[in-house]
Amino acid sequence: MAARRPPQDLPSSTKSFADLGLSPALIAPLARVGVTAPFPIQAVTLPDSLAGRDVLGRGRTGSGKTYAFVLPLLDRLARETKQRRPGRPRALILAPTRELATQIEATLLPLARALSLRTATIFGGVGAGPQITALRNGVDIVVACPGRLDDHVRNGHARLDAIEITVLDEADHMADLGFLPVVKRLLDQTPRTGQRMLFSATLDAAVDGLVRRYLNNPITHSVDSAKSPVVKMAHHVLHVRHDDRLAVLTDLTSAPGRTLVFTRTKRGAKALTRRLVAGGVPAVELHGDLAQGARTRNLNAFTEGSVQTLVATDIAARGIHVDDVTLVIHADPPVEHKAYLHRSGRTARAGASGMVITLMTDSQVDDVRQLTREAGIRPKTTRLGPGDPFLAELAPGERTLVSPPPAPERDALPPRQRGRGSGRRSPQPARDAQPARATRTAQPARTRTGQSARSGTGQAAQSTGGSAATFSSRSRVGRR
């Protein structure tokens, strides 16, 4: 069993990184990227992880877990300088999704470069050639999704027998996605004497199995409860008619600020993105049906601010960090309370404030009540419809809608398209919903407020037919 210490909530200002024993070689590059004081999860874990202990860390999403394992990993490699060997990395970080792996590397890279350490990111959906080349040239740290790394190991491009420190990030999510068999296969090939750290938002039975098998007398640190409310996160449930959902969503997403909208299915994310764009809201989508290039472009467009609305499945609910997400909307309420908490955790991060809104129809009342009860929150529930003044209170600011491009004239259509009613429908974005398309749409902007904005959304809903407000299905929340 893991040695357990009582939960702690150490304010970030009470100790410095130097007080915790971090190498001066890391403190300076940390300051250059704006990190000057440890968060609670970092403050409580660093003394043990820097001492080489196996660590089991639990903190809610947005609590700073990435630096909690990146810093001791870099510190150890920098103190024990060794020559790189082809195909034999010294440190391994496993993550459940490509987006999370990419964000871990973005956190890691400026610090690793300052220490002259080389990194590589390995995941599927992209060509294997550059990854194989990087491994062959020798890297110190590999950030990987389990499946593609397992392929490289099986094909002889990588060996894990020189790993000195292994990190599992979002271990509970890896279990949810069914990755545990391949994770165990990879961990079995790392030295038993190496240091291992496991970080997760929740520590359930599947994670406990990993801890018992692979961690050696670990110290467990929990800085908060899995259901601890975020003080600066406000929760609202909007009770709406099924056919009013699109108009309400368009109103909320056309307000200033960065908004993340969640749907239950990939098809729902794609359909909702199209309808928002048709209604004048520049939006991009993020889900598993997109090619990796499209996923990266869309996430970058959202991160950089060229598009302020991202419609996503739960692929974006874990590990994705985008600064200044002011509003999270559950267009489709999730099935499980854990998913609600992880989705909601994309806002109110690192001490910032944020708003979480769940849309609820008549058929979903019982399920949403159970969901919020299990999540440990008490949202304010309001019954409303399109144009309700309360929408402007929830998402304040002038609504700015972009006019969708006009339908082409009938005579301008190629012969094959004439007679198919093309001019009756708003043009649909390309399959990958590339941010360049949404950005171009945003240029001929005009401002609509009050009734004119709501009128535009109603027209968009009508242009897509009677089922325009259906994002995933008409079934109850609890059904898959």
TrEMBL record:
Region: Disordered, residue numbers: 374-480
Protein family: Belongs to the DEAD box helicase family.
Helicase ATP-binding domain ranges (all copies): 46-221
CC annotations in GO: cytosol
Annotated GO MF terms: ATP binding; hydrolase activity; nucleic acid binding; RNA helicase activity
Motif segment (Q motif): 15-43
Composition bias, Low complexity: 424-480
Domain DEAD-box RNA helicase Q: 15-43
Protein known as: Superfamily II DNA and RNA helicase
Alphabetically ordered keywords of this record: ATP-binding, Helicase, Hydrolase, Nucleotide-binding
The UniProt record lists the keyword Lipid biosynthesis: no
Keyword Hydrolase: yes
Helicase C-terminal domain segment(s): 248-395
Domain of life according to the entry: Bacteria
Species annotation: Asanoa hainanensis
